[in-house]
Amino acid sequence: MPKRVKATEAPNVPAITCPELLGQLIKAKRTGMKLKLRDCAALCGVGVNTLSRLERGNPNTTLAAAFSVLQGLGIQLTVESDSSAEEWV
Fold first, then answer.
1. Is residue 47 part of a domain?
2. Is residue 44 a part of any domain in this protein?
3. How many angstroms separate the CA atoms of 41 and 35, rounded?
4. In this structure, how many other beta carbons lie within 10 angstroms of the beta carbon of residue 31?
5. Structural domains in the chain (count)
6. Which residue range(s) make up the domain with 25?
7. What is the pTM (predicted TM-score) of this model?
8. What pLDDT, in 10s, does the model give residues 29-58?
């Protein structure tokens, strides 16, 4: 009998501030969708090793790969406006 995908919890934080938290978020979404690593990688158009590195929070994964996975899983990044953002303009 094939292994079932066990859902993991998403990080309970107000913001994703490091690669490890992004990886936890991605893994929680994937497992919540009951997708195996290889199936999710195929869906997102990345390699299994790339997806695995993202989920482990490897900071050397490319931004392009991260966005492919986020898009494939339906995760949107949003910007919260604050007063310090105006300093960048």
1. yes
2. yes
3. 9
4. 19
5. 1
6. 19-77
7. 0.86
8. 999 999 999 999 999 999 999 999 999 999
